[in-house]
Design goal:
heterodimer; A: alpha+beta; four-stranded mixed beta sheet; 5 strands; 24% strand; globular; B: Glutaredoxin; two-stranded antiparallel sheet; 4 helices
């Protein structure tokens, strides 16, 4: 399952989610402002506190809304 | 009526009594977008790390009343957002800090310390004035909050002892803070 780490009112998070919907990619969203657990996970993945971060395996990830990198990550 | 009489809402919707901060030196700041280029966050965080053991607390109050960015920094907007703005001091719910719907705390603060002008030596002062004149001329009237990162310094007795406009960098306030600690 694709995971998207995000916070509310974040335009780039919205773009990522919109793009995944457009491409019919099912994803699970984690609001790291509400969940300390999700924030810790995010930190483990990227070593930083910036969003959006998109990942499948928790190892390879894409920061921000970068179409080319998202396509590569998701095999689109 | 003093600072400790106010109740505010945290960024998770819980009520917080400012009386809980009695005896601390407080720096109350209206903050900006977590998604733009906002160097004052980093400086505020530095102040907080440097002085929190000595009794400083910074309270951040985000609002989206100021076009969500710093004037003159469009070209530097980052394409990501920072969780909690990259800071570890307390942040409160996003609410108005000026106008009729301003939260009572800010109505009180501007009543205690009025607007005395921007520091024109600051590199962004001119850009800020121009942006205000063009987009929000009414903001320039009276003592209201003019822009993001207006800072109010409160001493250990709860008295509002200073107001610093967005054109004063947090780093340059270190001396004034030290005097109160």
């Amino acid at each position: 399952m694709v995971k998207v780490y995000s916070i509310p009112n974040c335009p780039w998070c919205e773009k990522v989610k919109k793009y995944l919907k457009l491409k019919n990619v099912a994803y699970e969203e984690f609001n790291v402002e509400d969940s300390d657990e999700a924030r810790d996970e995010l930190y483990k993945i990227s070593g930083d506190q910036i969003v959006p971060v998109t990942t499948i395996d928790g190892k390879n990830y894409v920061v921000s809304f970068d179409k080319a990198k998202l396509d590569a990550l998701l095999g689109l | 009526m003093g600072v400790y009489d106010f109740k505010v809402k945290t960024n998770r919707g819980e009520e917080k009594d400012l009386a809980d901060y009695k005896g601390k030196v407080l720096l109350i700041v209206n903050t900006a977008s977590k998604c733009g280029f906002t160097p004052q966050y980093a400086e505020l965080q530095e102040l907080y790390m440097k002085y929190k053991e000595k009794g400083l607390t910074i309270l951040g109050f985000p609002s989206n009343q100021f076009a969500e960015q710093e004037p003159g920094s469009n070209e530097e907007i980052q394409e990501f957002c920072r969780v909690n703005y990259g800071v570890t001091f307390p942040l409160f719910a996003k609410e108005d800090v000026r106008g009729t719907n301003a939260q009572p705390l800010f109505k009180y603060l501007v009543g205690r310390k009025g607007f005395t002008g921007f520091d024109e030596a600051h590199p962004k002062a001119k850009g800020l004035m121009d942006a205000l004149k063009k987009k929000f001329p009414e903001y320039l009237e009276g003592d209201s909050i003019k822009w993001n990162f207006t800072k109010f310094l409160i001493n250990r007795q709860g008295e509002v002892v200073g107001r610093y406009e967005p054109t004063t960098t947090p780093a340059s306030m270190a001396g004034d803070i030290e005097k109160l600690l």
